[in-house]
Amino acid sequence: MTDTARADRAARLAELLARTALSDQQAFAELYRSTSAHLYGVAIRILRDASLAEEVLQEAYVAIWHRAGSYAVDRSQPITWLTAVVRNRCLDALRRREPDTISMTADDDTHDELDLPAEGGSPADLLLAGADAQSVRECVDTLEGGSRQAIALAFFQGLTHAELAAHLAEPLGTVKSWVRRGLERLRQCLDRAGVVR
């Protein structure tokens, strides 16, 4: 895509967002047709689950419909703003997932009892582990937006620094700084909470 075509597309998307902010349904439909494939790609890359990506994309477009008026043309490109809305919804969906839930399948009905580890911790150990997990969540929530996103994508999705830079559309040095500063703040917060031993 040439620079002129890119600029024309950005101007068209900005116009569609402005009209969407005025509750123009036709503009919103065109905005959806113009951007949904790209934004679905963003969602699927973060979530790695097609049905969840579709669900999150739907939530994102509802948010776009309601928040289109908050888009500021002088602060970012329209596609950057739209991508940020989708990315934030994806990260919210990842946070909602419970990492320690038991998956129930048809095969589970044939077992009379759960297979528990032979070397399970005592109730006190389990209580401490739960408290540590809560402290980790609280410390992650204190991180700044860029650091929190970069660390979440790096650790939950396994993205490298280069992939993070491309995904977040930020310079590689900026992303490395976000990760480095975020990890240092996370370590200090966990140390204060007594989790880092």
Secondary structure: elements and pairs:
Elements (H helix, E strand, L loop, with lengths): L2 H19 L3 H23 L2 H18 L10 H19 L26 H19 L3 H13 L3 H8 L3 H21 L5
Helix pairs in contact: 1-2, 2-3, 2-4, 3-4, 5-8, 6-8, 7-8
Please tell me about this protein's structure.
With 197 residues, the protein is mainly α. It folds into two domains: 3-96, Orthogonal Bundle (Rna Polymerase Sigma Factor, Chain: A), CATH 1.10.1740; 132-197, Arc Repressor Mutant, subunit A, CATH 1.10.10. 71% of the residues lie in helices and 0% in strands. It is built from eight helices and no strands. It has helices at 3-21, 25-47, 50-67, 78-96, 123-141, 145-157, 161-168, 172-192. Helix 7 (161-168) crosses helix 8. It is globular and about 55 Å long. 20% of the residues are buried. Residues 100-121 and 123-128 have low confidence and may be disordered.
CATH class group of the largest domain: Mainly Alpha
Quick one: CATH superfamily of the largest domain?
Answer: RNA polymerase sigma factor, region 2, helix turn helix motif
* Biggest sheet statistics: none
Give the SSE order as H and E letters: HHHHHHHH
Mean pLDDT: 78
Q: What is the quaternary state of this protein?
A: single chain
